Amino acid sequence: METYYQPKDLSKFGEIGKDAPELAKKFFEYYEAVFAEGELTEREKALIALAVAHAVQCPYCIDAYTQACLEKGSNLAEMTEAVHVATAIRGGASLVHGVQMRNVATKLSL
Amino acid sequence: MANTVDQAENISTLYANADSSLIEPFGRTLFQHNLTLTRGETTTLQINVGLLCNLFCKHCHLEAGPLRDQLMDAETIDQVVDYAARNRFEAIDITGGSPELNPRIENLVRKLAPLTSRLMVRSNLLALEGPAWGKYISLCKENRVIIIASLPSLNKAQTDAQRGEGAFQRIVAALKKLNAVGYGIEGTGLTLNLASNPVGAFMNASQIQAEKRFHEILLKKWGINFTRLYNFNNVPLGRFRRWLQSRGELDNYLIKLAGLFNPCSISSIMCRTSVSINWQGYLFDCDFNIASEQYLGGNKIHVSQMAGLPAQGLPVMVGEHCYACTAGTGFTCGGAITA
Asked: Which of B157, B205, B213 is facing A76, going by the closest CB pair?
């Protein structure tokens, strides 16, 4: 195995149900329902998924939702902005914890 | 049934030199699904008036472009008109290349308009400019011609990447002009449909959702109206096939198309009910078979020798490019097939 991540493994996702079919069935039905058009369009949901894929840094998800975004009519500028949203939240999540740091430091300092 | 499948399969070997061994031959996939692809009643006549085009689009299966000088001549045009007069078609669809660049287009439009209730012309909207464009639009309006205009994306960068630098802004300007004369405006009876192909090696969007979005964005950003949007997958032939090869994406694209084969698409696929004529006057099941040189029924028949409509039950000539029309929701000449 040259790498833990193999692009062709993405298409094997369904095999995860082989030894726990009921759980897989529930998951995939839920997954399908989540991404169906509702109050948000499928295109909007794909952009959210793309951003989350970058936040959780899942190569499978990045590959799949880059294609999904393009297929649903998004463009590179929109997709790049979505990635920046993920970046801002990840960066912001670190930075906002600086308040805790400051609280502790203030409490301990003269 | 098997005989028909075998026949279609054998005929498709004409194109076998370009087929991929990575996917099932299309005829075999039909057989595995207990399906046959045979002609029904022909209701649409598609006329390809030539390969000359002002653009050099990366996805063009016919490899049309500014240096292609293959144009339907006056004699062939007369023969096509005679054929249309002998057989009443519900719809006649003029395509190219850029149909506007055939110098005999006005003659063709005027002669065909009385012969059908739906005369359509494809247009990239950029072939003519100034007074020539105005004159052409007047011709279309006068003859109640349905205009099918190409707009791959609502995004400038994506559209320009497919159709050439600056194309997007010029298309927007042309659509505004069409609206100004009534095309795409409700109540005028002048139909302006948009045709959209994916701007790369991926599938097309859901037609219903894409149409809704195109309506919203075009109206909001540019005040543009249109009638319907039709989505088409890119077909792995010609220039698009070579582009896929150059990116190392041909196999992935073919596998993706074949993996999305939808058996439900076969009953209403466009090649069952249309017949296409190339610029020389020869008959094919569809425009994609013109690109793959698979003649109607496997025989090189000229329109001047064709008395009636193609026989019902005649096998449609197939190849791996057929997967583009059967992937997902599939498409007809009228866009996505209703699920």
From this structure: B157
Could A43 and B213 be called an inter-chain contact, meaning their C-beta atoms sit closer than 8 Å? yes
- According to CATH, the superfamily of the domain at B41-247+272-316 is Aldolase class I (3.20.20.70)
Chain B environment of A75 (Cβ under 8 Å): 153-155, 157-158
Instruction: Find the residue in B nearest to A72 (Cα).
Output: B205
Domain that holds residue A102: 14-108
pLDDT, tens only, B145-156? 999 999 999 999
CB contact under 8 A, B209 and A42: yes
H-helix or E-strand containing B162?
helix B156-163
Interface check for A43 against chain B (CB to CB < 8 A): the answer is yes
Assigned token pair, A83: 């990635």
Query: Total structural domains in chain A?
Result: 1
Q: For helices B167-180 and B156-163, what crossing angle results, to 10°? A: 100
Q: What is the dihedral of CA B94, B98, B104, B108, to 10 degrees?
A: 10
What ipTM was reported for this prediction? 0.72
Pairing of strands B283-284, B331-332: unpaired
Q: Which residue of A has its CA nearest to B207?
A: A72
Domain boundaries, chain B: 41-247+272-316
Residue A6 covered by a domain: no
pLDDT per position as a tens digit, B123-180: 999 999 889 999 999 999 999 999 999 999 999 999 999 888 999 999 999 999 999 9
Nearest to B59 by CA among B203, B208, B237, B213: B237
CATH number (domain holding residue A96)? 1.20.1290.10
Any domain includes A2: no
Q: Does A96 fall in a domain? A: yes
Cβ contact (<8 Å) for B153 and A77? no
A43·B209 Cβ contact <8 A: yes
